[in-house]
Amino acid sequence: MKKVLKIVGIIVLLIIAFLLISAIFLPKTVHLERSITINAPAEKIWPLVSTFENHTKWSPFLKRDPNTISTYEGKSGTVGSVYTWKGNNDVGSGRQTMTKLEEPRRVETHLHFLEPYEAEANAFISLSPKATSTDVTWGFDSKYAYPMNAMLLFMDFDEMLGKDYYDGLVMLKQ
């Protein structure tokens, strides 16, 4: 029995060592974005992306829990306004703060996820007007300090969230 415990202990130590060493070489940032072209001028799209109340009309995440409790603080569509949510395990809970508005080109927000795990990210929506349409890009950037970046070995944000971001853009387009 002692021999088995010793072997298990060595295996656990090797796994921990592998994770810690791997984390040294892994990136410490995550970037995700999706884009779509909408046949409308940026001025028509701007109201849908510049207020949290309108975000909820096309958010793919709220489809996962229609009973999500949402609250809003501050003046809608201004820097400093806040959106909070609390939903089921698929939606979790958190807080999103409007940090930058460049009408009608760019919206930036800071996300603070509380559940199912605590994390932070900076999200953006950019509008690039074309002759008769607008390219809309929705994305986020997040940082993970060593050794927490080791979780990036097991998490593919592109796979986890890429489809949701694209689906949200499709709903925005509609």
Descriptive account of the structure:
- By secondary structure, the chain is α+β, with helices and mostly antiparallel strands.
- It is 32% helix and 35% strand.
- It has a seven-stranded antiparallel β-sheet with strand order 1-7-6-5-4-3-2.
- The mean pLDDT is 87.
What order do the helices and strands come in, and which of them pair?
Elements: H1 2-25, E1 29-38, H2 42-49, H3 52-58, E2 69-73, E3 82-86, E4 93-102, E5 106-115, E6 119-129, E7 134-143, H4 157-173
Antiparallel strand pairs: 1-7, 2-3, 3-4, 4-5, 5-6, 6-7
Question: Helical percent range?
Answer: 25-40%
Helix segment tally: 4
Strand content: 35-45%
Structural class: alpha+beta
- Kindly report the spatial arrangement of strands forming the biggest sheet: 1-7-6-5-4-3-2
Roughly how many Å is the radius of gyration? Answer: 20 Å
Overall spatial form: elongated
Q: Total strand count, please?
A: 7
Order of helices and strands: HEHHEEEEEEH
Q: Which spans of ≥5 residues are poorly predicted at pLDDT below 50? A: none
List keywords for this structure.
single chain, 174 residues, alpha+beta, 7-stranded antiparallel beta sheet, 4 helices
